[in-house]
Fold this sequence. Notes:
Elements: H1 5-12, H2 16-24, H3 43-58, H4 62-68, H5 76-106, H6 117-123, H7 127-137, H8 142-154, H9 160-165, H10 173-193, H11 195-198, H12 208-222, H13 225-239
Amino acid sequence: MAWSTRELAELAGTSVRAVRHYHEVGLLPVPERRSNGYKQYGVSHLVRLLRIKRLADLGFSLSQIAAMGEDDHHPAEALRALDAELGATIERLRRARVELGLILRDHAPADLPADLAPAAGAAGLSAADRSMVLVMSRVMGPEHVVAYAAVLRSAPADPTDGEFDSLPVDAEEATRRDLPERMAPHIRRIREQYPEAMAPDVDAPRGARFVAETAAAAMAELCNPTQLDVIRRIGAILADG
């Protein structure tokens, strides 16, 4: 019995391209050729190809299959390791489905972590604010992330939010002076209502100082010079009490 590459692939339920790839990586022996130059596959090739396909369908990588060789009795350690790996993958996919459900339900940004996405969606953040949240989520400690999410989810909106987001670079001095005066009371109330979020991030993996430095660097890049000037003036107002 002899089959062509196409016939062998069809019998095994795979593709000609896969058969050729298995030749290239040394998993499937290259058969002899007929007088016309075409490969001539036999039963041994089909059996080997079916075993490769079966192990690949179970989740083994080609390198793992190669390490097993021709042995029909695969080591229990390899099977147990694969089972654990598949279990971890299933759990990761389960969590991903839960997170996708929350994103769809809350119309939340898909690029934010699960702890912050629903809250950020409820807050209706601008693109710059979302970028800020994403950066901070990578440096804050777990307790601070929870407190930060509470602010995003529950803090009342303020009319000045939109004004700050749309501040042009060439805003007049009167605007630079007036807007901080109107924004400061709202920020002061948030600080008073959410002291946990405003306190130093003592459980941050790289320390509170790194969190503060990252926040400053992110604002410097995400805000235009006028917005940064307004932020500095708000800080001065709050410092004066």
